[in-house]
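#structure-requests
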Amino acid sequence: MAPFLMKFFPEVFRKASEVKTNMYCKFDSQVLTAFTSSLYIAGLASSLVASRLTAAVGRKNTIVLGGCTFLAGAAINGGAANIAMLLLGRILLGFGVGFTNQATPLYLSEVAPPKWRGAFSTGFQFFIGVGVVAANCINFGMAKHSWGWRFSLGLAVVPAAIMTTGALFISDTPSSLVERGRVEQARKSLTKVRGINSNVDAELADLLKFNEMAKDAKREPFLTIFERQYRPHLVMSIAIPFFQQLTGINIIAFYAPVIFQSIGFGSNSALIAAIVLGLVNLGSILVSTGMVDRHGRRFLFIIGGIQMFICQVAVTVVLAVSTGISGTKHISKGHGILLLVLMCIYAAGFGWSWGPLSWLVPSEIFPMKIRPTGQSINVAVNFATTFVLSQTFLSMLCHFKFGTFLFYAGWIALMTVFVVFFLPETKGIPLDSMYQVWERHWYWGRFVRGSGR
């Protein structure tokens, strides 16, 4: 929004308004990227704290805390009078996102029945997508108002209030309650999520057994996860979020208006393009919800990876042809439409693969004693990678031009090969039997075989 840039980033506004500016370099500003990426540094810090927090006070209470922090950040951003307030609000938003990204995937995996765990857990990514689309629609509606940016930033208090209030009315997960010694509450929680006519004694007995095993270990979880038998868990908790960010989706999602403006779309057209991409992503997540527990995680990862790779290469070619090597040629309408179509196909590939599955798989592979720790590493790596990419993307776009998208295509090829050889199938496996998957794997079996848990 022009009024927002004029108030907080006047140099960026002046540069973007210059006719002769290279279209790839209009928004290359470290101040602007610092504002965006401050959220990720805060999220990284909070995710490391959240590991102990989810273990000590439970998944539910961590979600409540995250919601309250996010609400405060949104309120400060909406009323910001200077850069300092803007950054403070952004940092509080980061803390809120860090807490909820730690607790929510764990919550969903722990309460879902094994055969439908994939469908339940993809709901997390789906509602993130709903938020992205809603935000872009609000930005589009407010773009012409001088105070529109305040409305756009401040309105984030609404989903924060809904999430916080809703979390107050749910029970904590049975695993978390057992972990904190609240066995009877765990039984009630199990009965609630499995149905009043279900016999939960066997499942509760398993939770108690594995909790006792975790207590007997009596070792710091951040040290335990580095043991040889947990090598595959550690690798996945780092590799999956790292690869997810290197698909380039968050860069495209957060900078979609910037990208489309940079290649010649008008301000309103750029926002419309971002909305279209978001809707495509939402639809593809629904496809993933219907397929993940039938065809498995690996199938969707591989198909989505191939689809994204082809689209990133095609985007590179279209940009090279339409904007020229220097990036000074104005993109034609035909090429612009083709670019939007390719990005939509790309967004669909991400939406039914690395989008939801990057949260699902890490939340289901860890044994109870290192589950909060593993999820904490997963979220921390996600934020750290996003921070680095968000700090460098606009500069990379300015210097590498269309080659930036080829950079991401290379990483997508690598991560797809990684999935083919190193990620076992986890569909339908109870959380406390997941170690069997690693024992049977051609490579990871050498690390976990014979360890039992």
